[in-house]
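sorry for the late reply, my laptop died twice this morning and i had to redo everyting from scratch. anyway the thing you sent over, i finally got around to it. pasting the sequence first so we're on the same page, its 100 residues, then the predicted structure underneath. double check i copied it right bc i was rushing
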Amino acid sequence: DEPEEDQPHCSHCSTSLHDQYTHTLRSKIKQQQLSLVELKKTVKELEAEKIQEVELRRRVQDQAELLREKSNEIERLEKLLEEFDNLAQECDDLKLLLRL
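ok and here's the structure:
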């Protein structure tokens, strides 16, 4: 007779343990889902930062190229100015020769 009386009690404990386990699992699933949402958000932020970094590197490269072009142009103009000065000196020398 005693085992029959124990049946409802065991059934109750089993159901209670099952409910507790289910609740714990649901809680863990919710935590994991929240973690996943946060990770996705972080990934999006990192992707946005990477895009900005790539854009900044491209800009730096463009500016470096522009700087090289300007530097080359300055060198070219300096050479032209030197040639002009030499021609002006030759012109002055020729004028002096003509006066003699």
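The radius of gyration is 43 Å.
thats about all i looked at so far, will dig more tmrw
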